[in-house]
Design goal:
There is one protein chain. It contains 9 helices and 5 strands, in the order H-E-E-H-H-E-E-E-H-H-H-H-H-H. The chain is mostly helical. The strands form 2 sheets. The chain has a 3-stranded mixed beta sheet, with helices on both faces. Strands 1-2 form a two-stranded antiparallel ribbon.
Length: 279
């Protein structure tokens, strides 16, 4: 299939996204790392927060029913201690964030995972702590990264992009069907695939980069060594099995991620030194 056709598909997707209206906003301040990209939001923050709170409670309820929630009091105390230092630092990006109804829990699982839902609903998996043998500084890097996603409302942004992409697919389905002589429903599916590769995946990598940069600043402001983000991803690189090509991935490659982190770790180093000097 010609590259010209795919360029036309991309234009149709873009036109559909623009047709939904551009409700742009900036969810956070720029911070020392300078994150200041405008975001298009087509879904309300209140709606996303309600859904996230419900999903978090359900996830924790399920973990509790399987005796997987907060089984080790020492691990739980450790994770919550790190969180309690990171949360005040969120005010550098959002004045409202320190006052969120934060919840922090540990789930027993072999997965190398952690996440923070909108509104400050955190979960850290024991696999990440135990398999990587993370230091407190590295734990702060993980948690700071995940908190950054919540601060930037990346979940809400992704939901908004999905709304725009669905509109674009509906608009373009008939056009593609006529062009190829196929059913318009199949044309709509093709538009969705092209849109996912052309917009959704690259945007996901951009969001990951923003979370990396904000995360190292949160860690630095909380008195954790921001350079631990580099050692963390070096550890992750050693245990990762065959990453897909970066352009097909929703996350940056470990190599490009570490290269970017080296720059921003240096940028926030004065914040770390200042936090270490504070009583």
């Amino acid at each position: 299939m010609s590259s010209r056709f795919f360029r036309q598909c991309r234009l149709v997707v873009l036109a559909g996204v623009l047709a939904t209206g551009c409700a742009t906003t900036r969810t956070t301040g720029r911070g020392a790392v300078g994150v200041e990209r405008d975001q298009t939001m087509l879904v309300s923050s209140a709606e996303v927060d309600r859904s996230a709170a419900k999903a978090y409670q359900e996830a924790m309820r399920e973990a509790r029913s399987k005796n997987l929630l907060n089984r080790d009091p020492r691990q739980l105390e450790r994770v919550r201690t790190v969180a309690n230092r990171l949360i005040p630092a969120t005010g550098a990006f959002r004045r409202d964030a320190p006052g969120w109804q934060w919840q922090v829990n540990v789930v027993s699982s072999r997965e190398l995972n952690a996440w923070c839902m909108p509104g400050g609903k955190l979960a850290v998996y024991t696999g990440l702590i135990e398999q990587l043998q993370v230091t407190d500084d590295e734990l702060a890097a993980v948690m700071g990264h995940e908190i950054a996603h919540a601060l930037r409302e990346h979940g809400r942004e992704k939901a908004s992009q999905a709304v725009g992409l669905n509109v674009a697919a509906a608009l373009g389905g008939a056009l593609i069907g006529a062009y190829l002589g196929i059913d318009s429903g199949l044309g709509q599916s093709m538009i969705g695939t092209v849109g996912d590769l052309a917009f959704m995946r690259p945007n996901s990598r951009e969001m990951e980069q923003e979370a990396d940069r904000i995360g190292v600043e949160l860690a630095a402001r909380a008195g954790y060594d921001p350079a631990a983000a580099i050692t963390l991803w070096e550890k992750m690189g050693r245990v990762a099995d065959g990453q897909p090509p970066q352009w097909l991935s929703t996350h940056p490659s470990h190599q490009s991620r570490i290269a970017d982190l080296r720059i921003y770790v240096q940028r926030v180093q004065p914040l770390y030194l200042a936090a270490r000097r504070s009583p």
